[in-house]
Design goal:
This protein has 344 residues and is α/β, with parallel strands linked by helices. Helix content is 34%, strand content 17%. The structure holds phosphoenolpyruvate and manganese (II) ion.
Length: 344
Amino acid sequence: MIVTLADDAVDSGSAKRFLAEYGLTDVVPATIGGRRVLLVEGGDEELAERLRALPAVRSVLLPTSGNPLAERQSPGADSIVSVGGIPIGGDAFTMIAGPCAVESREQLRDSAALARSAGTVILRGGAYKPRTSPYAFQGIAAEGLALLAEVGREYGMPVVTEVVDVRDVELVAAHADMLQIGARNAQNFTLLTEAGRTGRPVLLKRGFGCTVAEWLGAAEYVLRTGNPNVVLCERGIRTFENATRFTLDLAVIPVLENLSHLPVIVDPSHGTGDPALVAPMALAAAAAGADGLLVDVHFDPANALCDGAQALEANDFELMMKRLEALLAGLDRPIARRELEVAP
Ligand code: PEP
Ligand code: MN
């Protein structure tokens, strides 16, 4: 049951006491999509009717389908997700970049340095890599998490990294400012729920076979835990087209702007699989209203252990960032910056 509190409700005490009298104690308060809600395990129509009579309650839903928490309930109430103090959503445009995989301290530091100097505010890097072949490099796991946290601190950037297994959720949440759920796990509902329960922001990739409704359903699993901090990431879908690695669906940006209050960013690296296509698609995503980008950058793409063929090297990334800044200035949109400048 979803109990939405009235805008002028001072506290949720009366509704909570009422629920407790009914024996419902699994009650999670949250603010989602601009609404203060109580997420209640259980409930029935009779209870809903009685709750609706309370002055502190605006509405009560007993959903049996759909994605009421992910959907936009009122115009203008956009969610802004804070990742270690860096906002995603609202007016700001937020750059996330880094290597596809964490390989070593030196590789991560060099890649972080180039990402940061060009204007990146959140560092990415996979410690666990979901690879199509079990014989391909799988990531350096816990060692990678520790390196990511260390280098993020050193360079003053919050970090995002993928969690591929429900058994690793706690460890990843202990090291990362944001948990990434990858395209291949986009409908792993247990993983989504456990990631949500950590309270960490969740970067939710679109499954490459998922419709928008299915994608919002995945977001709903996270939001249902009371964690409002979900960022959607378009990363390309499977179509008959094979001139690009996937087909980057940029029309989904304005579609989601209408349907959902959640921020939407775009990953042009995995979406195209080709460094020559990353900058054009990054600019197009910004022009279409994306809240930010997730980009693979590597100081030495030719020797990368994962997805080097799609990573941008320093010069191309800097050039892309210059063009992006000019475009965003023309659109009157500020680029999210670090609050605090930290060495080096
Ligand atoms: C990634 O960002 O490293 C990644 C594996 O992306 P996706 O899940 O979109 O393929
Ligand atoms: Mn990759």
